[in-house]
Amino acid sequence: MRALQGLENSSPSVRLQAALAVGTNPDPQFIDKLIDRCAIEPEFYVREMLTWALTRHASSLTVPKLIDELRSERAQARSQALHTLSKIADRQAWPAITRALLTDPDDEVARTAWRTAVVLVLEGGEAELAGVLATQLGRGERETQLSLSRALIALGEAIMPTLRAAMTDPDPRVRQHAIATERLLRDPDAGFEFAIEEAKRVVALGASGQGGAGQGADR
Asked: Can you say whether residue 212 is alpha, beta or left, with left for phi > 0 and alpha for psi between -120 and 50 degrees?
């Protein structure tokens, strides 16, 4: 009970210690409280400890509750539930990673869904997942784009047909992102900034007959 009360303490260090205590001595009665706290905990390192504490409990008990949390209206609740599912890595949760989550309007939820999907995808489902992820090419700023590229690259060669199609997309941002992802797949040491700048040049040269429209589209 002291640990459960500690999860609500105003001090982040006390909440951290409480989560550590719960994870060290797992008990099914703690699961609901841990999940509830994940949805509202403001400190990243405390959220990580909460996730660790959940992974210490039986997945047969935590996974169904985490799947329920994916339907929460609170973005942080969805994001943390996804993150925890990725750490538990129980592929029975795969059907819960829906297109709605992979295209969630909240960037942090979507980014976490991409990472989780790559962990949980069933063998043979990589190409279909790549197709859904490719609908998000060109989305957001660099951090979001890098997250998507990493998720796609983790799927391996299964992404190539989808990437090739995206390289001819009418949207220059989509083309740039697809080209940059393909560069990183071939040369992981290139770095995303280098890859995206190179992709911009490729798109700009391809659009030179249209006044270089592609070059300014991502500015």
From this structure: left
Half-sphere exposure of residue 118: CA atoms within 13 angstroms, side-chain side: 20
d(CA 123, CA 169): 28
Q: Rounded to an integer, what distance in angstroms lies between the CA atom of residue 149 and that of residue 182?
A: 9
For 161-167, the CB contacts below 8 A with 24+ separation are 161/127, 162/127, 162/130, 162/131, 162/133, 162/134, 163/134, 165/134, 166/134, 166/137
Over residues 48-67, the pLDDT tens digits come to 999 999 999 999 999 999 99
List, for residues 182-211, the tens digit of each pLDDT value.
988 888 877 777 777 777 788 877 753 333
Separation between Cα atoms, residue 66 and residue 205, nearest integer Å? 47
Tokens in use for 207? 């659009």
Cβ pair 61, 67 in contact under 8 A: no
